[in-house]
Amino acid sequence: MLYEILYPVIYLRSFARIRNARPEPQLAQFRSLKSRLRRLDIHALTAISPFAGAWLALHRFERTSAPARPAGASQPIDRIIQTEKGRLAVRFSGDERAKRVLLIHGWNADSSMILPLVTALTQNGFRVIYPDLPGDGASTSKPMSFHEKGRMIARYCAVYGPFDCVIGHSAGGLIAAIALEEGLQAHRLVTICAPQSLTSLLQAYLVQTGAPERLQHVISHAYRRLRRCSPCDAGHSTFARFQDKLLVIHANSDWQVLVEEAYSIVTSAPQAKAMFLDDCNHRSILGHPSLVEGIAAFLGGYPETARWADADAV
């Protein structure tokens, strides 16, 4: 609230000083001041009303998007779909006659992050459809909740299905699960470094942004009231329904979404296959050579060579 109101003042103050300071320190000072002010106002608002503090946290969470990419740095867009809230940019890779995979990137990112996996899947004979999620990359959109993003993917990407598999990286795993619950047709589901539920993702966001600890207990209730659905349901019921048609992949050294999240997913789907990779983290896993081998084996692309971790073992 205070940050949103005072942002123009902060910007003008920083701009007035920029000629007397080097750009790098000035930018760092601006970011530091921005972070402190955002923490201050959410702490102040939570002290007055925890529900109002949770509303502000959700407001900011749902408006977080990937940093703008330099002009010319983005991949060519194959389809632009006009929606009721903006436009959805979709890209394709691979032979149209091959097995179809819908690949969904994570929160605070765009499809450029998953390009290593797009390339690897294409080289292994898959047809990959990979959109920028609403509000990210080339997909301009009004701010919306995760559930709304999942519905948009289900509605507008269905024309490219049915899919042999939907793959979601990070929070894209949750959006994939929501889309499947909204009617998207796919035979299998793969999560890569995904949180177990939207609740755990929201709680991680609160910790990351230095929000008051008491909001950890309020955020789910606020989401349920404001969005008319429970954040606990996003993911859990879908994972349990897919069972042996679910592959859970995680980096053992992931510090952004801890590997314990994968263990929790497998607990809800005991028949699921699980794959834990070393020598990679939350992002570098997308270029790990064993990643595409495991996915291809799971989808029957070639004889299974990956070693699955039994549910009982995790």
Cα gyration radius (Å): 20 Å
Shape: globular
The string of secondary-structure elements, in order, is HHHEEEHEHEHEHHHEHEH
Helix content percent band: 40-55%
- Order of adjacent strands in the largest pleated sheet: 1-2-4-3-5-6-7-8
| Number of domain units | 2
Enumerate the spans where pLDDT stays under 50 for 5 or more consecutive residues: 303-308, 310-314
What is the fourth-level CATH superfamily of the largest domain?
Alpha/Beta hydrolase fold, catalytic domain
CATH structural fold name of the largest domain: Rossmann fold
Query: Which whole number gives the mean pLDDT?
Result: 85
CATH architecture of the largest domain: 3-Layer(aba) Sandwich
CATH level 1 class label of the largest domain: Alpha Beta
Count helical runs.
11
Number of strands: 8
Structural class, by secondary structure, is alpha/beta
Distance between the termini: 43 Å
GO molecular function: hydrolase activity
Keywords: Hydrolase
Domain AB hydrolase-1: 101-224
Pfam families: Abhydrolase_6
Molecular structure report:
By secondary structure, the chain is of the alpha/beta class. It folds into two domains: 2-48; 79-313, Alpha/Beta hydrolase fold, catalytic domain (Rossmann fold, 3-Layer(aba) Sandwich). The protein is 42% helix and 16% strand. Helix 2 packs antiparallel against helix 3 (50-61) and helix 5 (146-157) packs across helix 6 (172-181). The radius of gyration is 20 Å and the shape is globular. Residues 303-308 and 310-314 have low confidence and may be disordered.
